[in-house]
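Recall from the previous lesson that a structure prediction takes nothing but the amino acid sequence as input. Here we apply that procedure to Protein phosphatase 2C domain protein from Pelosinus fermentans B4. The sequence below is the only information supplied.
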Amino acid sequence: MIHAPAALILVLSIAVIALVIKRMTLTPAYNTRVGQCMTIGDREVQEDDYGVLANQTGTLLVLADGMGRKYGGKIAGRVAVETFVDLFKEYKAFEKPQYYFRKAFHAANRAILNKVEDGRGSASVAAALIADHTLYYALVGNIKIAVYHGGDLVPVSEGHTISVLAQQKYLQGRLAKKSAIELLDRHRLYNFVGQDGFKDIEFFSQPLPLRAGDAVVLISDGIYETLLWREIEHELAQGRDAQQQALRIIERVNRSKLPNKDNASIVIYRC
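The prediction returns the following tokens.
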């Protein structure tokens, strides 16, 4: 027969062991392979948000660029990231990546609509799953997902801006060339999370193989509309410390003389 104090000690010991195991199997991926950094730019509110989480199978990267009024964008960005992270903890995301992405995007959309009233907040969101040197990704909005390989930073996503939509419709023969050209400079979003009727998600067409030395990069428009692509490539070529690379890229944004700079954020994962 176990006495009450002994039983209490046993229960507490089991709880502590379970907590330790949980922390061992699901921990933030903070090391030289992962870099995260952001700047508020010339805005009054930081509406970008990001998250990186690893388990025994692989790593989740998620970046959100919020938009809205009266802190609605800030809330939307935070809610989106929290939703992706929470579902990553609950589901075996690497068994069915598309299922995880679809569930996370729709859950984030519902959560934002419930949290932010009257459509005051929405967000572009990009997410990547990396396991066994393989990349799975999905996005909504205008965040770019790119792979750095052999000195070149190659975009793997298209995004959901009016200009991209115009290009797609022109190639499909559904838009006249003149009309398509007129729309090419329009960067306004036509798709994002935090709207009724949300449904369009850009998925990976097939898993992308990664090699040692490659890097997966998620960047908000505050970076790629401020810096030249070759400036980002230059910093990614300097060493292997992803956090230092992220810091230097954001420093370049801060030093830029361009007026009215947007929030800018980057997440880097080095293989």
